[in-house]
Amino acid sequence: MEQQGSYQVNTISASIENEINRLKGQVELFWDNEFKHYIEYGLEDGKSIVEIGSGPGFVTEKILQSFPNVQITLVEREPLFVDYSGKYLSEAGYENFDIINKSIMNTELPDNKFDIAIIRLLLEHLPDPVNAVKEIYRVLKPGGKAIFVDNDFEMHIMTYPHIPELRDLYEAYCSSRYAEGGNPKIGRELPYILKKGGFSNIYFESINAHSEVVGEDLFFKSEGIGIPVKLVQDGFLSSKKLAKVSVGWRNMLKNENHSIIRQLYMAVGEKM
Ligand SMILES: C[S@@+](CC[C@H](N)C(=O)[O-])C[C@H]1O[C@@H](n2cnc3c(N)ncnc32)[C@H](O)[C@@H]1O
Question: In the chain, what percentage of residues exceed pLDDT 90?
Fold first, then answer.
């Protein structure tokens, strides 16, 4: 039986609505920089794409906005997201997508079907990322490319002025995810995991967002209070420490030169 890993929409945050808003903010925060890399590594109009762990469909929406003639298959294990993304994309008027309710560990898709695979913020939640990568390798055409994007919580939000208490929050987050079988510091391991999964010609990038460039509202939207509150409820973080983070955050924002940055890690591999 497949282990569930460290992402369950019903339990990761204080509410599902908070979580969906956070995922939307997280797409918007990085999109301009991230999308440039997707294009650099072969995404273009007309391609057949598989997006696994597609969640509410916000990444799919961005791709369909820019490339109306791609065909995207969304693969999602969580029925709530299968329903949400189907409705969301249909109501936005998109047609060239289909959604299957499967796990990345066994998609049941045919061999050699897709030009591009996108797997964003999923590997970090899986107990067995190498076998997940092998499944992606299987469904790509020879010459196809897979783009994996993940966090490494050694480096998450950093601010000027520095907020030392943020470290406590991220260590609590990591303990919670590790306890569920995830790996929130997987970013640094991605090239090695891709190689073990069969990929060649591997590239590695970091994708950055800075409050002065993208605006600080997107940072607020993509962080939110839902996950920290849940960490307190689950006993991974004390309410006293969370209160200190809130005070530190408010003080940081009062500094007229304040800055907020965050990064994601992208690894790309080719099926030879
Ligand atoms: C952090 S969310 C990221 C959603 C989306 N990729 C994004 O970047 O906004 C992780 C997603 O992976 C899905 N997921 C978790 N385990 C999965 C699995 N074994 N197979 C397929 N999807 C899975 C979750 O339900 C969720 O939609």
Answer: 97
